[in-house]
């Protein structure tokens, strides 16, 4: 059957779309990646740069993806074919490739969160740092890791296979409120810990010297993180907006989505750092696995830490699931639209392939770190950059016209948005890409 014969799916409700986008945005990026980036990049200086990039880069860029998706009602490859010609078609392919790479290792990390939820409930966590580290090495790589990577991927496939309205929309309507409520609860708990004061000042008082000395690493890390956390640069927001039937105010929706994502990342810092400081664990330990080791050791040290830890890791797993479904949906929508393959078959095939691609990361954490760095600092930024150049410089009228549907006449805000895309967004992405490439090959 060809794609024209199948009516395109749609979100049933406005909150359905917003929850799905918030569910995509809020994920491991907020609860796992964000705190370890803050730790690695020296604390509050990174936080400040990140917040700046969210507003100046993230918001205009998200609107670009929204208008492309809603205008074309297509998956990213189809969308780029429709609005761009010649080599621009291939930008959609970068999105698909990025989705593959990210979901492959994202699912491995998500698998750890399931494993660590069970660990807390079953045995509790080990307080001794060296023992916690040893345990992490056992659980996070090899067969254990592969098993939980498989379980997680199966859950993603199950939701995506059902479809937009009854699969993704229904799932996020349960998951997103749960994530928000539990995160706030954990932050209140963390405020009562003895290390909270010290943690807040580490997290919240920027040292200008640190920023000045390290901007070459802070800028690409903060730009990459801003893109990653908002699910930008790989067509998720194009895809999700393509299921919007009616015209609504995309600027308002974007602001709500960004507000939630930023709040959850920020609040996670208010959870993680007090816990680490209270247990006397150094937040600057770099690397993807470190936050698991440090947090697990910290939970091992706290009263009722097994329970708090299980709730924490369980929430991270849910957040990861609501993001992973969006990553898979990008590729699945492409297969459905362009290849006319049924949704369940597409979800199983793509999920299986992504699972296999993740197996090396499940064996070797060094590889996982490399995948993460490559996807986040290079692929995401590259795909995002090209899309911004295309829309900002050659399709400004189409973009403004589409954004106005559901808002009304934008007046001078239209050109302001386009110029934000043309200069600051593109410039920051370009600088981030160059520095990211240098960093990667270092
Ligand atoms: N935004 C998600 C997070 O912060 O965990 C991760 C993510 C999802 C990145 C989807 C990119 C993406 F396309
Ligand atoms: Na995020």
UniProtKB/TrEMBL annotation:
Subcellular location: Membrane
Provenance organism: Natronorubrum tibetense GA33
Membrane topology annotation: Multi-pass membrane protein
NCBIfam families named among the record's database cross-references: Na_transp (NF037979)
Keywords: Membrane, Transmembrane, Transmembrane helix, Transport
Single GO cellular component term: membrane
Transmembrane portions of the chain: 12-32, 44-69, 90-114, 146-164, 176-197, 217-243, 255-277, 348-371, 378-396, 416-438
Chief localisation class: membrane
Name of the protein this chain belongs to: Sodium:neurotransmitter symporter
Keyword Mitochondrion listed: no
SUPFAM superfamilies membership: SNF-like
